[in-house]
Design a protein that fits this description.
rod-shaped
Length: 105
């Protein structure tokens, strides 16, 4: 049967009289081993540089200018952008008197 089918197609290798379906052996196909790819290494994560700074103040007391007529304030306590402000204090004698005694002088 194999020989007849083969001859109908006109293949020259089928013309052997002794060739049968059982006599035709397929050559084993050797499979190539899978290609192993190296593991992907992720680049190290770079930490941002540490910002160095000078802290000017951490509390209002560190901004004391020894002037009793100013209000000493530390802005952004303990931060890199901290700063001192010394605000002039304006006394309103009438308001103080009124608050203390509820009376106007």
């Amino acid at each position: 049967m194999f020989a007849e089918l083969c001859e109908d197609k006109g293949y020259s290798w089928c013309s052997s009289e002794n060739q049968t379906e059982e006599s035709v052996e397929e050559e084993p196909v050797e499979e190539e081993p899978p290609i192993e790819e190296p593991p992907v290494e992720e680049p190290p994560v770079e930490e941002p540089p540490v910002e160095e700074c000078t802290v000017i103040c951490s509390s209002d007391g560190e901004c004391d200018d020894t002037n009793g007529n100013t209000l000493d304030v530390c802005n952004n306590d303990g931060g890199c952008d901290s700063s001192c402000t010394n605000l002039p204090v304006v006394f309103n004698a009438r308001a103080i008197w009124s608050n203390l005694f509820g009376l106007m002088p």
